[in-house]
Specification:
By secondary structure, this protein is α+β, with helices and mostly antiparallel strands. Helix content is 22%, strand content 27%. It contains seven helices and 19 strands. The strands form three sheets. Strands 10, 11, 12, 13, 14, 15, 16, 17 and 18 form a nine-stranded mixed sheet that branches. The N terminus is likely disordered.
Length: 340
């Protein structure tokens, strides 16, 4: 079961991903725990209960990590009784790009894949925040490390999901000893399943050392991102974030935050960031599907700014959570309404 707590976003908070038995609903929503085996997913061309979605241990993706995925948030607005998928088409466009990187063929067009995702979520009649994960994977049963001459299949799951890390009081982070894989070794702009072992080393190192998250450096020592999130720092009223050329994931949420900052007239610089700049930053926050907007209050035993959530971080967090629940008309283009 999830360990959950209330959050300003109107959902619930989770320290870890849910198990496969059941997921507790957010405390603000009176729904029963859900048996995930009964949740309807899309699997290899059919809508089936998750208990029926099985692959062989010989599946190439299982053995070699040759798969790609997207993590997409769905936000429930209890006031209007509507579930909104955030930046759905942008995620669909990115997973199709990842498929090209992985030499996958016969991938549905944007409209068709979007339709399949919406239908998968709608069939489950969620009345809570959810996590949506479409994934294309090399489905051929074969031994041999390669990308070519392999078939691929699609699955789509959606499960109840709260906060991945704290968005209320701020998080503590450490600089990981594990560097980010470089793009010419394992493409950083593709969400490749096997590549997430790199992030797993970083995340476990941080948590086992008593921190909430890791900050990762590039091979040449520039700030990259968190274990599975983009980052921003604020210096003298200017928001700074690393460029895509520093081996970061081209984050969908990162692009949304750049739009939000521009609308709020906050100056932005996209440039390489040195590790020591983190220590003298006035503010810092992480952004991504999982972490959402998570302000950072400490790094490597050094307080960030005043040690609390700064004004720009608070502005971004509060505006973001209002936007994703459909409360701000100027950001309705971010949202896809899921039919009840």
């Amino acid at each position: 079961m999830l360990t959950q707590k209330s959050s300003p976003s109107g959902g619930a908070s989770a320290a870890t991903e849910p198990d496969t038995a059941a997921v507790a609903a957010p405390s603000s929503i009176a729904t029963a725990a859900r048996d995930l085996d009964s949740v309807i997913c899309y699997f290899e061309g059919e809508f089936v209960p998750m208990r029926a979605a099985k692959v062989s241990i010989m599946t190439h993706a299982f053995m070699y990590g040759t798969a790609t995925f997207e993590g997409i948030r769905g936000y429930w607005n209890a006031d209007v009784g509507t579930l909104y998928a955030l930046k759905l088409r942008e995620h669909v466009e990115r997973i199709r790009q990842s498929c090209r990187i992985l030499m996958m063929e016969n991938v549905p067009a944007v409209d068709e894949l979007t339709r399949l995702i919406v239908e998968t979520v709608a069939r489950n009649h969620f009345r809570e925040d959810v996590y949506i994960r479409p994934s294309f994977y090399k489905s051929t049963k074969a031994i041999g490390v390669r990308l070519h001459h392999l078939e691929n299949q699609l699955y789509i799951i959606a499960i109840p999901f709260g906060n991945y890390i704290d968005v209320d009081s701020g998080v503590r982070v450490m600089t990981s000893t594990w560097r980010r894989n470089v793009d010419d070794a394992l493409p950083a702009r593709g969400k490749i399943v096997g590549g997430y072992v790199n992030m797993a080393f970083q995340k476990s190192e941080a948590e086992l050392n008593g921190y909430d998250e890791a900050v990762v450096l590039t091979a040449d020592g520039h700030v990259n991102e968190a274990s599975a999130a983009n980052l921003f720092i604020v210096r003298d009223g200017v928001a700074l974030t690393p460029p895509v050329s520093d081996d970061i994931l081209e984050g969908v949420t990162r692009k949304a935050i750049l739009e939000l900052l521009a609308n709020e007239k906050v100056p932005v610089e996209i440039r390489s960031i040195d590790r020591s700049e983190l220590y003298i930053a006035d503010e810092m926050f992480l952004c991504g599907t999982g972490v959402q907007i998570s302000p950072v209050v400490e790094i490597d035993h050094r307080q960030i700014g005043s040690g609390g959530i700064g004004p720009i971080g608070k502005l971004v967090r509060d505006r973001y959570f209002d936007a994703v629940r459909g409360r701000l008309p100027e950001y309705r283009h971010w949202l896809t309404e899921i039919p009840a």
